[in-house]
Amino acid sequence: MLMTAPMLGPKDFEFPAIMLSGVVDHGMYLHFKNCLSTAPQQGLVVVELSTLGGDPEIARLMGEDIRFHSELYPDRRLVFMGRTAVYSAGATFMSFFAAENRYLTRGTRLMIHERIITKNIHLAGPLSTCIATLKATLNEIESSIAIQNEGFANLILGSQVTMEELLEKAPENWYLEANEAQARGLIAAVL
Fold this sequence. Notes:
single chain, alpha/beta, 2-enoyl-CoA Hydratase, Chain A, domain 1, 7-stranded mixed beta sheet, ClpP/crotonase-like_dom_sf
């Protein structure tokens, strides 16, 4: 029998155990890991985030820590609270929390987009080497799309947003205000 977590209110978010803001990068990850290691192993643990984005692989790394620790300490409820802006890699990180454990403050905006690559391809040498270089780049792009879409699937799980809609809107940077995110089932509530 699937148990749903109780709805939380503003008082539950008064003192977040983990407060993150700025670029999602290695520095944020180190701060996150330090805070996570000292967070209570039982009860509510709020992870607060405000970001304009950053490295999607660091966001996935932090998310995997959330997943792992949720399984390691089942008596602890890890909850996401987005404030002001949860853009790009921030939405990737948020996707690792179950929708019932995602909250946004009033006026917060989510921004979801496709991964971005900037790469120059320099072809020089034997033709077979040129083909290998092009194939390697194509493999990188295809793998990144697969990883991106896994995150998209986690983000929309149980919501009213379809993968088709998300894939249509993501290339143009899809912005959602907190109330719209709640209405679409991407988050539990707006604080």
